[in-house]
Structure formats: structure tokens, C-alpha cells
Specification:
With 565 residues, the protein is an alpha+beta fold. It folds into four domains: 98 residues, no CATH class; 137 residues, Jelly Rolls (Sandwich), CATH 2.60.120.230; 148 residues, Sandwich (Jelly Rolls); 125 residues, Alpha Horseshoe (Serine Threonine Protein Phosphatase 5, Tetratricopeptide repeat). It contains 14 helices and 21 strands.
């Protein structure tokens, strides 16, 4: 009996010692938790950022201690979709097992604050900017009023004369100004004035469509934004030039949220003195044949492209919509080897990203880039917007589906870059453009804009008669589509159909008299038709809009000589 009492007393003593040890060594916010939150969470969880609450001090964290423990234990937070072991990315938000266990113990042991001397300095974001105060901040001059309901909207906002001097841009940061309304954003450059011309035709800020004007182009690298994307600086030698006086065009894909939204985001540009020295480009793999039956829980497709030159993969960016399940990209080497590039096992539309490798991934000529995406269109998919599920096809709206894998590629020489651009954009790229617009026209045969782009793509592939058929149909479907009449008239002029070309280009200039290209092309048609006096008027109109147009100047001289003026 005495022995039993002694044993019981020893057990009680051991238990109390363990409790005392746990209490005295319990994690505290200031010493153990703040460093984790400040490094991996506060970037989104601070005042004015995209997260719904802040985690920059003890009071904010303590009242959510159990929530923080739960979401970190399940690895739902911090959001970092790529699986470990499938590419080593810069700025990864992974928490270690020890960090997750420390947060769990802190919550379980009472979420203590700890000694003030242990608290590290909290990070700060001047005016909300994650990379620090930008060298130049731009915003659309006026807010766009997004209606509460209706279809998705593509809108382009011109930021005129963005820079007063020549600059090299090393990083771009985007502040949406609203949560949920912006599906994605692209930043483009236009030094032709065409985007500004298109915006001048509108009564509301910006102008519609997925095309930002004939002169708009991507500046280079990943210059875009999606929900959850963090800003990343370009690697050394990969800044992009912003010429003095050039316009920037902000292209937004907007989706109504159920309430009216004022859309007026801010763009922060960070400059460097170093000019770009490394040749690079963006390349895209995708499928436009997506057609997911209701109830299908493992719909999949694959796409591939063989590299014509040696490259290094600087970064990678997958894009799917709400039914996305898995996204995987890899490279198959000429010797039969395989290099994993990215694997997202649980796709989340709300946490997309563009991922840059810690070290670029070198791939030799002849390597095949591959992608395989899967989708879940069943009732079990909690993100499925349709109950019961419905058929979902390729399309540009959020309720449609997409499957895109973007590669940021670097070549060794400018000559190799030119080869890659020629092979990808000249062959694969044209077929891809045609396939995209064929899919959109199948979805909506009255979509004159997509039919016009289909015609333009077919013309570039040399399929002239097919292109003319598509453009004529688009002109019938939308008699106010200026780009359609411009493209149709220009193509007809190339094959000598001057009568119909004159009619189409005349209509294009009626819709928009400030389109200098249309005026110039119409002048050429009139000149070649023996109507020199009328041609003079058109060339003069073109030069009023674009005074430096050499073709219009030459045409004017010929027309004046022929007309005797």
C-alpha cells in the first residue's frame, strides 16, 4: 500500500513538472510567433491590404489564435499553391513543420504575449506598397463604374504620357483598390497613340475589348496581376524600357460582384539605372478545346511545344478558372530525362501567381515543354458555381474555363531569341490565335469581335479567302465595328479588290475619322483606282492625325502629282 502511494505521488509529481515545463517554455507572441507572422503573413494581413484582417500586433493575433493554428496546420495558409519538389521558387511562403507546431502550441497554451524586449520590429508598407515607395505611381484619370450585375467586362484604361524621361522598369506593383471585382490585369505599352484614339471614342473611362489598340504590346516578363499575386522584381539585366512620352495601357478583366464598384486601381513603377542585357520573351501553352460535361470530376487535357533553341526558364505561371483541380508543367529532354517545372495539386482560383525560379532552369534545344491540367465539374467541387453542374467550355468569362501555362524564357543570344519568336509566334502562335477565336465564335456566332480576330489570324496564315469570309460576316453582324471594316478593306486592297476595299475603308473612316491608318489605306486605294484628287484628301486627313507617317507623306506627294495639285 505504501509502495502504491509512493508511485502515485511520483506520477503526480512528474505530471506537474511536465505542466510547469510546458508553461515556462510555452511559445510567446513576441519571441516565437511575431517573426513567423511578420515574415510570411503580414504582407497580405496588414491595414489596407487584400486580406480581411490585420496580423501586425499581439492584440490582432491573439483573438484569432485558434484560427491561425487551424489554417496553418491544414496548410491552407499562408497561401502557396505549388507543391514542394516541383521547382524551387523565389519568395516561397512555406511554413516548416516546426513553425506550424510552434503556432499550435502557442494557441493551445493560452496565446501569451511574452516580454516586450523579444518583439521584433514590425514590417511597414509605405502607403500600402509591398516593395516600398515606387518611383512613379500611375492611376486612370477617372474611375470606371462597374455595374452590380451582368457579364464580365474587358476594359482598357490609357495612362497617357506615362513618363517624362527615359526609364528602365525593374518592378511593377498593382493595388486593385477593390476585392473581387478584378479578375486579372495586364500592363501594356503603346507609343503609337492608337489606344488613346480608341479611348477618345468612348463616353466612359477606357475602351472595351481584349485588344488594346494596334500598337499595344507587352513590355516583357510577367507584368500582370491576379488575386493573391505578390510583386516580384525582374532579375538583373531584365528590366524593360519605358520611353519618354509612351502611353501605358492597363487592361482589366472585370467581373460584377453584386454591388456597384468604382474601378480605379494604382500602378507603382520601380526604376533601375541598368539597361536590359538579357534576351527574353513570354511563351504560352494552352487548350481551346475544353469541353467539360456536368458531373465530370477528372476532366484532363495536355498540350506541348518543342523548343527550337536552348533556353532557360526564368518563371512560370498557370491559369485556370473555378473548376480547376490540378495544374502540372514539366520538360521532357532530348535524352529522355524529365524536369519538373510546377505542380499545383489543389488549384484555388483566388490564389493565383506567377512563380520565378531561384535559379533559371536550363533546357537544351529539342526539349518538349508539356502541360497537363485537370478539372472537377462535379457537385463535390465546393468552388463549382453551378448547382446542379452544367456543361462548361473554353471561354473568356469567369464562368467559362481556361487552361494556360505561361513560360518566361531567356535565350543565350538575340539571334536565338529571334528564332524562338519566329517559330513560336509565326507558326504555333498564329494557329493558337485562330483556335482561340474559332472557339469563341462557336460559343457565340454573333461575336463580331472574335470573328474579326479570327479573320485577321487566318489572313496572317495566308488563308485569304477564308479570312475575307469571316470579316464580311463580322461586318454584317456589327455594322459599327471599325476594326472589322479596317481589316476587311485592308485585306481586299492587298488582293486588288479595290471597289469593295474602298467601300469598307470608307466605312471605317466614317466610324472613326481619327484613325490615321484607315485614312492612309483608303488614300492608297483611291490613288490606285485613279481617284487622285480624293486620295489627296485622305492622305491629308491621315497626316493631321499622324504627322510622321512616312507612307501617308509619300502617298500625298504622288496623289498631288497625279491630280495636278
Amino acid at each position: 500500500m505504501k509502495r502504491q502511494i509512493v508511485l502515485l505521488s511520483f506520477a503526480a509529481f512528474s505530471t506537474s513538472c511536465a505542466q510547469l515545463f510546458a508553461a515556462t517554455n510555452a511559445p510567446t507572441f513576441n519571441r516565437d510567433i511575431a517573426p513567423i507572422l511578420f515574415r510570411q503573413c503580414a504582407e497580405c494581413h496588414h491595414a489596407g491590404a487584400i486580406a480581411p484582417f490585420s496580423l501586425t500586433n499581439f492584440r490582432e493575433a491573439k483573438k484569432r489564435a485558434k484560427l491561425i493554428a487551424d489554417v496553418t496546420r491544414s496548410r491552407y495558409m499562408p497561401p502557396w499553391p505549388p507543391e514542394p519538389g516541383y521547382g524551387e521558387f523565389a519568395g516561397a511562403r512555406h511554413l516548416s513543420d516546426l513553425e506550424i507546431e510552434t503556432i499550435e502550441r502557442w494557441s493551445r497554451t493560452g496565446a501569451k504575449e511574452g516580454a516586450a524586449r523579444d518583439l521584433p520590429a514590425a514590417p511597414s508598407w509605405p502607403d500600402g506598397w509591398q516593395l516600398g515607395t515606387p518611383d512613379l505611381v500611375l492611376t486612370p484619370p477617372k474611375a470606371f463604374d462597374l455595374p452590380a450585375e451582368g457579364p464580365d467586362i474587358y476594359r482598357n484604361f490609357v495612362l497617357p504620357n506615362a513618363a517624362t524621361a527615359e526609364h528602365f522598369v525593374r518592378a511593377v506593383e498593382f493595388q486593385p483598390g477593390t476585392n473581387g471585382a478584378i479578375h486579372h490585369a495586364f500592363l501594356l505599352i503603346d507609343d503609337t497613340g492608337d489606344a488613346r484614339r480608341l479611348e477618345s471614342l468612348e463616353t466612359q473611362p477606357g475602351f472595351p475589348g481584349m485588344l488594346a489598340g494596334r500598337g499595344a504590346r507587352a513590355p516583357g516578363g510577367f507584368v500582370s496581376w491576379q488575386p493573391g499575386r505578390r510583386p516580384v522584381e525582374s532579375p538583373e539585366g531584365m528590366a524593360w524600357p519605358l520611353r519618354k512620352g509612351a502611353d501605358l495601357v492597363l487592361q482589366l478583366h472585370l467581373r460584377p460582384t453584386g454591388k456597384r464598384e468604382k474601378i480605379q486601381p494604382r500602378i507603382g513603377l520601380h526604376f533601375t539605372d541598368q539597361a536590359p542585357t538579357r534576351p527574353y520573351m513570354l511563351m504560352l501553352l494552352r487548350s481551346t478545346s475544353i469541353d467539360i460535361a456536368p458531373g465530370a470530376s477528372d476532366y484532363a487535357f495536355e498540350s506541348l511545344y518543342q523548343l527550337p533553341v536552348d533556353v532557360s526558364v526564368v518563371g512560370i505561371a498557370p491559369h485556370l478558372h473555378l473548376l480547376g483541380k490540378e495544374a502540372r508543367g514539366w520538360a521532357e529532354l532530348p535524352d529522355g530525362g524529365r524536369v519538373e517545372l510546377i505542380f499545383i495539386k489543389q488549384w484555388d482560383f483566388n490564389w493565383q501567381g506567377e512563380y520565378r525560379y531561384v535559379q533559371p532552369v536550363a533546357l537544351p534545344k529539342g526539349t518538349t515543354l508539356k502541360m497537363r491540367f485537370t478539372y472537377d465539374n462535379s457537385e463535390k467541387n465546393e468552388r463549382n458555381p453551378n448547382h446542379p453542374p452544367r456543361r462548361v467550355q473554353y471561354g473568356i468569362e469567369t464562368a467559362d474555363e481556361m487552361g494556360e501555362l505561361w513560360f518566361w524564357l531567356e535565350t543565350k543570344t538575340a539571334a536565338e531569341l529571334a528564332t524562338l519568336e519566329r517559330e513560336h509566334f509565326g507558326t504555333y502562335g498564329l494557329r493558337d490565335k485562330v483556335a482561340v477565336n474559332e472557339a469563341l465564335v462557336r460559343r457565340d456566332p454573333k461575336d463580331a469581335s472574335s470573328r474579326t480576330e479570327l479573320g485577321v489570324g487566318l489572313a496572317a496564315m495566308g488563308k485569304t479567302q477564308e479570312a475575307i469570309t469571316q470579316l464580311r460576316q463580322a461586318a454584317t453582324d456589327d455594322p459599327k465595328a471599325q476594326r472589322t471594316f479596317y481589316a476587311l478593306g485592308t485585306l481586299l486592297a492587298k488582293i486588288g479588290e479595290l471597289g469593295e476595299a474602298e467601300s469598307a475603308l470608307t466605312r471605317a473612316t466614317e466610324i472613326d475619322p481619327r484613325d490615321g491608318k484607315a485614312q492612309c489605306n483608303l488614300g492608297m486605294v483611291l490613288l490606285n483606282s485613279g481617284k487622285a484628287a480624293q486620295a489627296v484628301e485622305r492622305f491629308e486627313a491621315a497626316l493631321q492625325v499622324t504627322p510622321n507617317d512616312a507612307l501617308a507623306r509619300q502617298g500625298l506627294e504622288k496623289a498631288r502629282a497625279q491630280s495636278g495639285k
